[in-house]
Amino acid sequence: MAFLRLASIFVAMALVMPLAAAQQPGERNIYCCDDAHGRPVCGDILPSACYGQAYRVISPQGTVRRYVAAPLTPEEIVRRDAEEKARKEQEARLLAQRRLDEALLETYKSLEDIDVREERALADVERSVQGIREREVELIEQRGRYRQEAEFYEGRDLPRELTTALRLIETELMAYRSVIDAKELEKSSIRARYAADRRRYAELLASGMTRR
Questions:
Q1: Is the pLDDT assigned to residue 91 strictly greater than 90?
Q2: Residue 42, C-beta contacts closer than 8 angstroms, at least 6 positions apart
Q3: pTM for this prediction
């Protein structure tokens, strides 16, 4: 196929040379392409056989000035647009990651700094949990006193105030348990976040990227 293509170019040049020799300076270029059978077709205007085909622009002196590619097919246009979209999305991801990396390097001074901040964040949550647990102990003790009081009414209806107090304590204890569960999840999230920051920070240091 390569030999046939080369032969076609030589034939085209042979056809063009007489036309070029007959032209005076300032005359138009010659346009050549290969028809459906691989035969060269040339003219001083683009031949109809070249419509929708790749063609060559040849100077009056017989040299190829440029090659013009054939128009893309609908399938090629779809593929080109998809590739261009994928390229832009990749560039956007890389840019976003670059900004995140720069922010990470600006946030922490060192790997040790990440450890210190993680411990501080966990300690803040733990202080909050400790306060809730202390309140839980108070409520459990208070509930115990109310239950002892309720024993005096065994076999009888409890006073409304006592029933209401016990119900409110149980409701508050359930709420505190939910808060404690949420705080435990928060601590897990903190550990995961700082672990990811620590891992990426180490990768950036290993790659030679440093703070500006």
A1: yes
A2: 12, 15, 16, 19, 30, 31, 32, 58
A3: 0.58
